[in-house]
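To close the chapter, one final illustration. This time we ask the reader to focus less on the individual chains and more on the assembly as a whole: which components sit near each other, and how the overall shape emerges from the parts.
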Amino acid sequence: MSLMNAEQYEESLRELNLVVYMFGRRLENIVDDPIIRPSMAAVAKTYEMAHRPEHEDIMTATSHITGKKINRFTHIHQSVNDLVKKSKMGRLLGRETGCCFQRCVGVDTLNALSIVTYDIDQEKGTGYYQRFLRYLEYVQENDLTCDGAMTDPKGDRSLPPHKQADPDHYLHVVEKREDGIVVKGAKAHQTGAVNSHEIIVMPTIAMREGDRDYAVSFALPSDADGIIYIMGRQSCDTRKLEAGLLDRGNIVFGGHEALVVFDNVFVPWQRVFMCGEYEFAGKLVAQFAAYHRQSYACKVGVGDVLIGAAQTAAEYNNVAGASHIKDKVIEMNHLNETLYCGCIACASEGHKEPSGTYAVNTLLANVHKQNVTRFPYEMARLAQDIAGGLMVTMPSESDLKAPETGKWIEKYFRAKNDVSAVNRMRILRLIENITLGTAAVGYLTESMHGAGSPQAQRIMISRLVNMLEKQKAAQKLCGIEEK
Amino acid sequence: MRRVGIKYCGGCNPDYDRVALVEELKNRLAGYVEFVPYDAENIDMVLAVEGCQTACADLSSVKKLEVYIIKAPGDAEKTAEGLKEKAMKAFEGAIHFSCRLRSSISDIRMTPFSVKSHLN
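The assembled structure is written out below.
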């Protein structure tokens, strides 16, 4: 079954036995939980669209291992064209779901590991790469969703992992056995964790010899013994518990994050891809980060939705022709397409690594992600400007439906004559959802901190630009001949 | 009947509704051309439906076949005519069919496609 459909995906999740807590209690039925289900629907969309002829060219690829048609979210990039299609897939799915569809982190992890396991083998004579390929084939054959787990809680940021007061603030190996390792620690902010079949752990920072036990990468079934998920909550999340859909804004899709605890979890050797090779921890982090910074192509798609919503709100108010409104919409489009430029550019300038995997241009990926830390915020500001204050002051759907109050809401919140109050409320709730509701987790704060906070990109930019060449060019043009 | 394999681009940010345009084409050419997926067996030619001028659909698996390419709704009329001409040649000698076909070609020229590009 190298291509699951949405229904098969949902059923496959029901077979998992995850230990998930939310609001202080363990969940018995995760798939049908009203708060989690919209995020499952967003992942399911990645399965559904792979079967649609009008999208399969982006959503599927050919496995370099088996030659079979697979979901692009399990593919190892074999060309620059593959990298470009990944960026395009992000925009497409962002626009289809209006939220984080959670599956990019897995494909980014798989691609980073395909590079680094090969590199470790070349230097150390280990056998990680073949082990990884066997695992990859399993993922591709079963079309699995993988959670790439990188971010440790990190404790005292000024101290390396092995000097933390609590040694578990970075995930680490606590025991090595003949048949595998035992690990302890946690990974924070795990997007889509409880919608995943597999969880693939990586180190979170570059490491030195003292951190050897922390330089570990492995994959486990998401319901392996000892893994515990504690759901993060989102602004306005309990609206999903209310009757009616209108106040959710996005009535179909959503995202989620969780804290994932590894409480002395056993990992068999065949699922270990790094164990003690601390010299390669930084490379794995950098490769993953570059791919994942490219993945913020998804925000372009969500930006498409936000622009569409802002334009609709303006038309409903009959102000779309006003010059300042037009200018604000132009600015939103300018910002959004500038983001698109970055994710296409870093893909187009990709290159082949020794393993055969194609990697993005790291400098351009970091520039792209740096833009993502800023532009969605400005777009959100402009959308709120266009939407007007009613977005945050209007009554609930229940008030709209109540006979005592509904008539007044219908009367006073109708704008242009042919636009109903309910449709006006729907579009404003969608803008609210993306800019300060549940979807703002993905569109704003995740844009800021996901795949590394802004300073992480600035450090990479400073490392990667060729400053000497720039200076030489300037000095040559003005006649400076000093070395 | 000629079998035409449809190959879409991925549709990341299309300028028009590609699926709706293909539906119109199917209706126009019903009875003359059979549209099937591009990876179906025994196809005679391919219709590549591209959402924009970038035209990035992967056509490597069909490169031995004749490929018609639509990059915008404006390409649809010419494509419909071309596919009908091919159908006519395939049935060369069947006089009643040719007559019917000629009138059909005339019909499609008179009835514009309804799908529009946002760029128009």
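The interface with chain A takes residues 6-13, 18-19, 37, 49, 56-58 of chain B (CB under 8 Å). Residues 95-110 of chain B form the longest helix (16 residues). With these observations in hand, you are ready for the problems at the end of the chapter.
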